[in-house]
């Protein structure tokens, strides 16, 4: 059975992620490899744009390196979390859908990390994102994306149930349904504990690397680098994620 599209209405609205703003930084995340990679692409400075800037987990340490960072995010609550951090009020942020890229360029670099491109609801909006990023990049500017590669073997009849964490007091479970036609996975991450039941829904529309390369070409960009991770490890058939760099000629 495939995903009923009517059951996921709203999961890709930009402001949907307001609900996760207060807990977004609870997951341990070490930004240094990402920041090192991005800063290395703009050694002489220039304006840099982060799409889906969120709580500033990458933007703030990148700005601390002296990089002129600006952002776009659809979640006002996420941006409030950014503003509450040291240096957060110094980063210009536009509230809006990242696919529209409603800012004035030119930028030397734009980037989109944490698989966030896949939050856009369909192929058309992902193409819009590439096209609009290309329009605000300067000649020679680059667009960096970090994405996972979907492992289709993890599904049985397009479904999956998994236990993410288990203790005496709580259990975290994950329910997934896969739509191979839309290339979409709908998640429901559920926590059962003494406070009750907490639901964390999410829908991702994944892309294969070759599809992303075609989106870039349609936008007038070309692939210049692809690595498995921010450490520039070799990308090959065993890679489960990639960091891709597209360049505007």
SSE layout and pairing:
Blueprint: H1 32-40, E1 47-51, H2 59-64, E2 68-73, H3 76-83, E3 93-95, E4 107-112, H4 123-136, E5 137-148, E6 159-166, E7 171-179, E8 184-193, E9 196-205, H5 209-218, E10 222-227, E11 241-247
Parallel strand pairs: 1-2, 1-4, 2-3, 4-5
Antiparallel strand pairs: 5-11, 6-7, 7-8, 8-9, 10-11
The gist of it:
This protein is an alpha/beta fold and 249 residues long.
Arithmetic mean of pLDDT: 91
Number of strands: 11
- The class by helix and strand makeup works out as alpha/beta
C-alpha-based Rg, rounded: 18 Å
Proportion of β residues?
Answer: 25-35%
Shape: globular
Output the strand order for the largest sheet: 3-2-1-4-5-11-10
Number of helices: 5
Distance between the termini: 44 Å
Estimate the helix proportion, in percent. 10-25%
What profile does the largest beta sheet have?
7 strands, mixed
- Regions with little confidence, pLDDT below 50 for 5+ residues: 1-9
What is the helix/strand order? HEHEHEEHEEEEEHEE
Descriptive notes:
Strands 3-2-1-4-5-11-10 form a 7-stranded mixed beta sheet. Strands 6-7-8-9 form a 4-stranded antiparallel beta sheet, with no helix packed on it. 19% of the residues lie in helices and 33% in strands. The chain has helices spanning 32-40, 59-64, 76-83, 123-136, 209-218, and strands at residues 47-51, 68-73, 93-95, 107-112, 137-148, 159-166, 171-179, 184-193, 196-205, 222-227, 241-247. It contains 5 helices and 11 strands; from the N terminus they run αβαβαββαβββββαββ. Strand 2, helix 3 and strand 3 form a beta-alpha-beta unit. It starts with 31 loop residues before the first helix and ends with a strand. With 249 residues, it is an alpha/beta fold. The relative contact order is 0.15. It is globular, with a radius of gyration of 18 Å. Residues 1-9 have low confidence and may be disordered.
């Amino acid at each position: 059975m495939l995903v009923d599209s009517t059951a996921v209405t709203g999961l890709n609205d930009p402001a949907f992620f307001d609900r996760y703003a207060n807990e977004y930084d609870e997951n341990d995340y070490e930004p240094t490899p990402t920041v090192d990679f991005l800063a290395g692409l703009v050694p002489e400075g220039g304006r840099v744009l982060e799409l889906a800037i969120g709580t500033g987990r990458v933007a703030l340490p990148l700005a601390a390196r002296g990089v002129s960072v600006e952002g776009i995010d659809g979640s006002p609550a996420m941006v409030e979390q950014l503003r509450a951090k040291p240096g957060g009020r110094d980063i210009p942020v536009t509230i809006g859908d990242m696919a529209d890229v409603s800012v004035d360029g030119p930028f030397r670099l734009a980037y989109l990390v944490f698989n966030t491109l896949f939050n856009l609801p369909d192929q058309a909006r992902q193409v819009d994102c590439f096209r609009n990023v290309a329009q605000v990049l300067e000649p020679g500017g680059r667009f960096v994306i970090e994405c996972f590669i979907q492992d289709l073997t993890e599904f049985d009849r397009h479904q999956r149930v998994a236990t993410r964490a288990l203790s005496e007091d709580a259990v975290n479970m994950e329910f997934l349904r896969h739509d191979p036609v839309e290339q979409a996975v709908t998640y429901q991450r559920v926590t059962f504990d003494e406070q009750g039941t907490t639901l964390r829904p999410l829908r991702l529309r994944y892309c294969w690397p070759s599809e992303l390369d075609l989106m870039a070409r349609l936008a007038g960009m070309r692939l210049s680098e692809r690595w498995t991770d921010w450490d520039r490890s070799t990308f090959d058939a065993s890679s489960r994620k990639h960091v891709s760099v597209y360049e505007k000629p």
